[in-house]
Design goal:
The complex is a heterodimer of chains A (about 325) and B (about 120).
Chain A: H1 2-22, H2 26-46, H3 50-72, H4 88-105, H5 123-133, H6 139-147, H7 149-171, H8 179-187, H9 193-216, H10 224-242, H11 244-250, H12 253-276, H13 291-323
Helix pairs in contact in A: 1-2, 2-3, 3-10, 3-13, 5-6, 6-7, 6-13, 7-12, 7-13, 9-10, 10-11, 10-13, 12-13
Chain B: H1 7-25, H2 29-51, H3 73-104, H4 109-118
Helix pairs in contact in B: 1-2, 2-3
Classes of the chains: A mainly alpha (about 325), B mainly alpha (about 120).
């Protein structure tokens, strides 16, 4: 039954992806992309990846759609006519490559094969050692924040850099909104009763759920990345309902930039404190007299850093698009 | 039935190529970014499919000590962070597209290159 459902979802994914590429209307394409992400999240859930499904639903179906729409508001909504000339060459290339990849899959282990090479390497060790070294339930959080903390630090820095890049690219040039643009951005959806009432009701629960994921991430699905994305969605929803100015007021730009850098710095600081206490960079066991308590403390602090940077970077990217005046 | 075990990988191949097609064949820059998102999601699907173990569950240990089967947590970690990094880079791409629209008045690749071609 689950297998059949999974196959139906995967088929729908292909159909949606084709529709995204084929439709000439970019607004339609972005909405279809949101559906695509939701289907992808459901597929991840069926494949037992609860944490990944959570992230994909919050980021792909939520935040990514908002950012694409924010950009579309500043550019044309339709593709130019006749944009698909000389189609046969790319089609031939992708047909050949698809054939090659599918031919190669016949050598791959079947889905769910427990003896596949991927399950023989470090994964059993992670599953075995997480309850011993950290006394935590969620192995994904343990691997993310402790065993592979170097990776995660790099990724946090990429997010910080991308967030700063968006701000810098869109901040120059026209800083002032025109009077008309300012009026439209200032009101948001304030005059639309139903979205406003429903949205305002949802915001506390969205933020609360985000905080729950942040602080409960070591026992259930959750962690800094998921929590950051969900809290950012709550803040962005507030800005959409109440207007840009009200959205900015709760997190002013200096605070936002401070949070972006502060989260990454907190992460680095935990690593450096570990070094000063005689351990290796990002070795949390030395943070407390009891190595298990030290690991838990380190993971909590690092996840907090991740959550702060992810939230503020996503909110900053949204504000960068929302503040800009559409080109004539 | 045995062949269905490869269906995830076939969908991966198709999605990868649909995304690649949008990137190389569509002149519209927003379409290219959407294609890049699809391409990216295809890779995510490949990793998560490989992590699946028959009869397993999400890697959250409920009763330590009891023998339980879990899916592989490592690909989950890699993809979880890759999703968030992906949206950040897509946002950066969109910011560049917005600037291109303001400078050139269009987001169609051939129209942007037209002035260079005439010279």
């Amino acid at each position: 039954m689950v297998t059949a459902f999974g196959i139906a979802l995967l088929t729908l994914l292909v159909v949606t992806a084709v529709a995204v590429v084929v439709t000439p209307n970019l607004f339609v394409a972005v909405m279809l992309m949101s559906i695509f992400s939701l289907l992808m999240a459901a597929t991840f859930f069926i494949l037992d990846a609860a944490d990944v499904a959570l992230t994909e639903a919050a980021i792909g179906a939520g935040m990514s759609t908002i950012l694409f729409l924010g950009a579309l508001a500043l550019i044309a909504e339709r593709e130019a006519r006749g944009s698909g000339r000389r189609r046969w060459l790319p089609l031939a290339v992708i047909a050949l490559t698809a054939f090659t990849i599918i031919y190669a899959t016949f050598d791959k282990p079947r889905l769910g094969d427990p003896s596949a090479p991927v399950h023989q390497h470090v994964a059993p060790w992670y599953l075995e050692q997480t309850p011993v070294l950290m006394e935590m339930s969620n192995v994904v959080t343990a691997v993310l924040a402790s065993f592979r903390a170097y990776d995660t630090l790099g990724e946090v820095l990429v997010i910080l850099t991308a967030g700063l890049g968006v701000m810098l690219i869109l901040a120059n040039g026209r800083p002032d909104l025109s009077r008309q643009g300012r009026a439209a951005a200032a009101t948001g959806l304030r005059h639309h009763l139903i979205p406003r009432v429903v949205g305002q009701l949802l915001i506390p629960f969205i933020v609360l759920f985000g905080l729950y994921l942040q602080f409960h991430g070591e026992f259930g699905p959750g962690g800094g990345f998921q929590a950051g994305a969900i809290i950012a969605v709550g803040i962005v929803l507030h800005a959409l309902l109440e207007g840009e100015a009200a959205g900015r007021a709760i997190l002013p730009t200096p605070l936002l930039v401070g949070m972006m850098a502060g989260g990454a710095l907190l992460y680095c600081a935990v690593g450096i404190v570990g070094m000063l206490l005689g351990g290796n960079f990002l070795d949390y066991a030395v943070l407390s007299a009891d190595p298990v308590a030290g690991q838990q403390l380190g993971i909590h602090l690092v996840e907090a850093g991740v959550g702060i940077t992810v939230t503020s970077s996503l909110v900053a990217a949204f504000h960068a698009f929302a503040d800009r005046e559409p080109a004539a | 039935m045995k062949l269905f075990g490869l269906y995830n990988y076939w969908v991966f191949a198709l999605l990868l190529m649909i995304g690649l097609y949008a990137v190389i064949a569509k002149p519209n820059l927003v379409k290219k970014l959407l294609g890049l998102s699809i391409f990216q999601s295809a890779v995510f699907l490949l990793y998560i499919s490989m992590a699946k173990v028959d009869g397993g569950t999400a890697p959250i240990i409920q009763h330590a000590g009891e023998p339980q089967v879990f899916s592989n947590p490592l690909p989950h970690v890699l993809i979880l962070t890759a999703i968030v990094v992906g949206i950040s880079t897509i946002a950066l791409g969109l910011a560049v597209v917005v600037r291109i629209r303001e400078e050139f008045g269009t987001i169609e690749e051939d129209e942007i290159q037209a002035p260079d071609r005439d010279r």
